[in-house]
Specification:
It is a single chain. By secondary structure, the chain is an alpha+beta fold. The protein has one domain: Thiol Ester Dehydrase, Chain A, CATH 3.10.129.10. The chain contains 2 helices and 7 strands; from the N terminus they run ββαβββββα. Strands 2-4-5-6-3 form a 5-stranded antiparallel β-sheet. A two-stranded parallel sheet has the order 1-7. Strand 5 and strand 6 form a beta hairpin. The protein starts with 6 loop residues before the first strand and ends with a helix. It comes from Halovenus rubra.
Length: about 160
Amino acid sequence: MSEEESTVHLSESHTEMTEMLLPDDTNALGRALGGVVLHWMDICGAISAMRFANKQCVTASMDHVDFIAPIDVGEIAVINAYAFNTGETSVDVKVDVHSEDPRTGEKQETTTSFLTFVAIDDDGNPATVPEVACKTEAEKELRKEAVEKRQAELESIIERMTNDY
């Protein structure tokens, strides 16, 4: 496999989904159920991973998730994802969610997480994936920020676990 065949540009994995929050997906306060938002994040992340790997991908893990702002009924959820790192058969994807009020245009960050997907072949076995390549400075910066933020979050989790035991 040539170097060009063994790499895929970060931008090729970019995926954006939009969803309108309807009453069936809300709690008693008219705000998005956390499970619904996680579902959207999983779908958007999986599409990003599949675009990157050019293979079927399944969810292996989702890192810590904090819901930092609500999405209210009638608002639009915008879910963005991109692949930023890989293992031999895994693809790490950063997924960001923000809400938009269609009446005012106001936007608000709601959550971010990192998901890991495993590429599988036609027989359902783990399959190798290409490495992430960055062709622009903007892509390099996106990747660097994602790697650093995930590392910081993992270190924070380890620290909390160590202090709790």
